Amino acid sequence: MVLVVGVMMVMNVGSAHDYAEALSKSILFFEGQRSGKLPPTQRMTWRKDSALHDGSDIGVDLVGGYYDAGDNVKFNFPMAFSTTMLAWSVLEYSKAMGPEADHAREAIRWATDYFLKATSRPGVVFAQVGEPYKDHNCWERPEDMDTPRTAYSVSRQLPGSEVSAEIAAALASSSLVFRQVDPAYAKTLLDRAKSVFEFANTYRGSYNTSLGRIVCPFYCNFGGYEDELIWGAAWLFQATKTSYYWDYVVQNVRGSSSSYAANFAEFGWDSKNAGINVLFSKFVMKGGPYSSLFLPNADRFVCTILPESPTKSVKYSPGGLMFKPGGSNLQHATALSYLLIVYAKYLNHENRTVQCDNVVARPQRLIQFAKSQVDYILGSNPLGMSYMVGYGNKFPQKIHHRGSTLPSIKKHPKKLGCQDGKPYFDSKSPNPNVLTGAIVGGPDIKDQYSDSRLDFTQSEPTTYINAPFVGVLAYFKSHHKA
């Protein structure tokens, strides 16, 4: 334990990163993931219009939104989580973002415009667009794709509470982002969030059951839908301050299942538990009858992470990178770092510390640890490699991403079919299109990284790795000496 802390400190001595540049690029990445008709303001110009007929076969406009990773499917569950995290980042750190706050709002609106379409039919929520197995068997540009663009939905008869409640959270949190700059749009988002949450709560069930053959194994919900319902209500309380949503959160946390309680340290597209406790901690930080529902578990979450904590449950690479089970490990480093800096902010406000048995962690320690993860990702690691594409002098060149791998339409206007992309996938050359700002899955627990398209767990970027990192970078941009 002491050795890990020492190595982490050594790796970060003298590291000087341009957090403003990294922030700008982390937001720009989302333009590379856009689906639909691209606007004249599109800055990542090698990307062009794609999937312009999504939903047309069933008479619904489902054009827009984001591709989740290196494929061409729109998975609405992780897309909604990414949107919620972008919104939370703006709500906490928009002033620190400076002019990038406008770009962050654009990234959010690209998603919320789509989610308004995906929830436009009463009693129906669209959960996915694209046939994933056929899509994953092709290596083609999104601009060329000819695999089925089937739209999959949940309904009263075939419920999907997790995807619906996460969309409600995305809409509610985003309504707060637009409240000052576009009140009418904010009201539209909030009204829809309320109705979608009501649908998710009234017709309970997992989309694993309703759409299992399509959503699994890609984005199966492993943690149950209970956390998404509470998460959705928590964001609706943030947006409305009405007692209904407060009572819903309190009652459902109090009466939650053992699986919900067991996941107190989890946070990501699948599990919202740690995020719920951190989010609601600011309302109960002064104490009171409900503080015991949130603060102890928020503290316990911190204690599972800090290297010096006797109750830590995460592992570390020799270079100090946090590891949790599952692929695309940097999703944990970015999402959990975000929770740490936000919780540190709330703790600071009330002059509180975290007690991990005999170890006392002050808010500054949480920030210090988050900075170690940020700096590792940006290049302060044994390989001296930035895991953000386009940042630093050394970064991944052969990421697992179709659009990045294949020549742009501008350079190769002729259609590239399903299997025409294989030679590009197999190529030893760097990707021709730089997906600026993309954060890949990251190195292994020995700090090794194979710059290979084949190793998608290491080389594939995702929206839900980048989204929480936006807020983290905004914080460190304005706190260089943290």
UniProtKB/TrEMBL annotation:
Q: Which Pfam families match?
A: Glyco_hydro_9
Q: Which reaction does it catalyse?
A: Endohydrolysis of (1->4)-beta-D-glucosidic linkages in cellulose, lichenin and cereal beta-D-glucans
Q: Where is the active site?
A: H400, D451, E460
Enzyme Commission numbers on file: 3.2.1.4
InterPro entries, A to Z: 6-hairpin_glycosidase_sf, 6hp_glycosidase-like_sf, Glyco_hydro_9, Glyco_hydro_9_Asp/Glu_AS, Glyco_hydro_9_His_AS
Residue ranges of every copy of the Glycoside hydrolase family domain listed in the record: 19-473
Q: Which GO terms describe its biological process?
A: cellulose catabolic process
Give the range the annotation lists for the signal sequence. 1-16
Keywords for the protein's UniProt record, in alphabetical order:
Carbohydrate metabolism, Cellulose degradation, Glycosidase, Hydrolase, Polysaccharide degradation, Signal
Q: Into which EC class is this enzyme placed?
A: hydrolase
Gene Ontology MF, one = cellulase activity
What family does this chain come from, according to its entry? Belongs to the glycosyl hydrolase 9 (cellulase E) family.
How is this protein named in the record?
A: Endoglucanase
Which species is this UniProt entry from? Answer: Punica granatum (Pomegranate)
Q: Mind giving the lineage of the organism this protein is from?
A: Eukaryota, Viridiplantae, Streptophyta, Embryophyta, Tracheophyta
